[in-house]
Amino acid sequence: MPEAPSVVLVTGVSRFLGGHLAARLAADPSIERVLGVDTTPPSREMRRRMGRAEFVRVDIRNPLIGKVISTAKVDTVVHASLSGNPGQSGGRSMMMEMNVIGTMQLLAACQRSDTVRRLVVKSTSAVYGASKRDPATFTETTEPKAIPPGGYAKDAVEIEGYVRSFSRRRPDIPVTTLRFVNLIGPRIDTSFVRYFSLPVVPVVLGYDARVQLLHEEDAVAVLERAAAQDLPGVFNVGGAGVLMLSQAIRRAGRFPLPIPQPAVPLVGRFTRRARLVDFSPEQMRLLNFGRVVDTTKLRTEFGFTPRWTTVQAFDDFVAGRGLRPWIDPSRLGQAQDAAVAVARALPTGS
Amino acid sequence: MTPHHTLSDHELSDHQLSDHERPRGDVMPEARVIPLRQDGGRPRPRPAPRRASRPGIGSLTERTAAARGLDGDGRPTEEAVDAVEPATGGELAALPAPSGPTELEARVAEVGEFLQRRLTGRYAVDDFGFDRDLTENVVMPLLRPLYEKWFRVETIGTENVPTSGGALLVANHSGTLPLDALMTTVATHDDLPVPRYLRMLAADLVFGLPGVGAAARKAGHTLACNADAEALLSAGELVGVWPEGFKGIGKDFADRYKLQRFGRGGFVSAALRCGVPIIPCSIVGAEEIYPKIADLGPIARLLGVPYFPITPTWPLLGPLGLVPLPSKWYIEFGEPIHTDSYDPSAADDPMLVFNLTDQVRENIQQTLYRLLAGRRNAFLG
């Protein structure tokens, strides 16, 4: 069985991750064909970037996807369309439909196919949940203490369940499941990115979460590697190190706005109505307790070390977005010099 | 500005400050060795305050001096020359104290530097959320007066704590509120020859409380579970556990200094797996800070806490009842119990784990009795 893929199908190409992955694969001459599917066509800029990759407008919830796979003789399927952004996906229930039902259809098509030799599934570290009883870092085998109550995380848990039963039924197809932490970078658009772009950032009073991030480029590179080689298993994917939420807000030069815990859902509803940030309850819990994953398996077994650490990725995001800090660092320096000058001017004597 | 110190401390800090006043490029003198403790344990001279001995300050003082002392062309102004002069002269003449303004300036510059770091987020935290900058500059200075002045903690056997590498410190728990744990973090930081940050394993209750949970993470503590314990131990950290848990800290005053059951031995298996020594740590004095004479179970259940204590002053005196009684404390670090002779798979041998657990518990109980026998009064020592 040849190692290198020749016909690759990528789902979710109208979004950042799928689109950029398709573009990278299309730039690889050893790959014969790259098919990108999504319900909405990618932006003009993305289409230009994708080059020779072909776009097929098909809803993966439709059995038509099976026909696409069989007629094109697809051998590698990269399912990158899992979305945690209801705003982009047309609402919560639509997002769940696309995520869960879409995956079921896609897996059904792969199970039928006799050409598919490799499956890569984008998942999320949200499957671990977030609670006070969690260990500091999650390994791939950690059982979640609290099953995520709903939304994105629950979708991901269900999707992983379907993926596991798929591998039981087709043990000959190696499946790579990648659990990404929150992505960040100068170009990607996620609810996390929007959250940090708010001028005043709401935080939960009395809590300070540990935040682990992954740079958008690293995310694309991981998917590309998984598509090119047989690396079966479940892998956590995240940058090294953590930032505290308060620290990240200060690094972005924003102001935190502490909100008492009972009022948090109210504020969440407001930011959703105002189309500022749409945070699911699961992501709200993340803001309380944070979540850090152990990426040892990614580095040793998968053979990938992210180029950006959490801090570097965040700084790249801040610089790339041109976020202007509210407090000018040079002003702080001046204030300090002034304070020292005052201290010097004070009369001697201790 | 100069805080209370013993004589030898004063000498040390003077000496170091005058070093910083010297112009750059001067050769540092040989470090003077000051004995930190005599044989026999007490009395205990306190090591120099970290504030004066931290390496960053010298450069900072120099830098601020440079910043204000250079005129437009980069030549030193007369002021700057003046500022350097008395310090170098002072060392020769062995002045008793450094000149006031420079010390004040350095302090202001230090605080300013700290605030700048905090406001711009330029500090590092580890995967557990441990914020060394905050712990060193805020948490420790807040706890230190309680440690030095209120409880007058005396440490014994500091040489039993390894200066580097993973080690598991196991201590008795008491006092209704976990002040004993906080004081032990000060002890391992201030009284060891090489300061170490004690990374404690705490109950999940701590991490659910607003404010407290976030503060505990920043001070380097984490949830009591085997995964975290082993991660910290294999990273070479000094880890602290209080295996009695709520049974120990919430016991009645009548049961003081009677060790409760030591959990289920999870701490021993973590130490066995990582092959690190177990250091028994006995704390005397913490039982008397909030004597718990009764427990209001229904209120505790309502609040979701394991107990609601009644002490002679709480809730009788309201917030005043939160002031701990000023008992005199002793913290003794016992001889390490080495586990590296066992195979890591020994952690799966429950009999061995139980035996080691009992050994540690017995050790602490005996040490407690010995310390109590030598104590005349709970408040005077």
TrEMBL record, chain A:
Segments forming domain NAD-dependent epimerase/dehydratase: 8-238
Entries under Pfam families matching the protein: Epimerase
PROSITE patterns the UniProt entry points to: NIRD (PS51300)
SUPFAM superfamilies cross-referenced by the UniProt entry: NAD(P)-binding Rossmann-fold domains
Domain of life: Bacteria
Classification via InterPro entries: Epimerase_deHydtase (IPR001509), Lipid_A_modif_metabolic_enz (IPR050177), NAD(P)-bd_dom_sf (IPR036291)
Protein name: NAD-dependent epimerase/dehydratase family protein
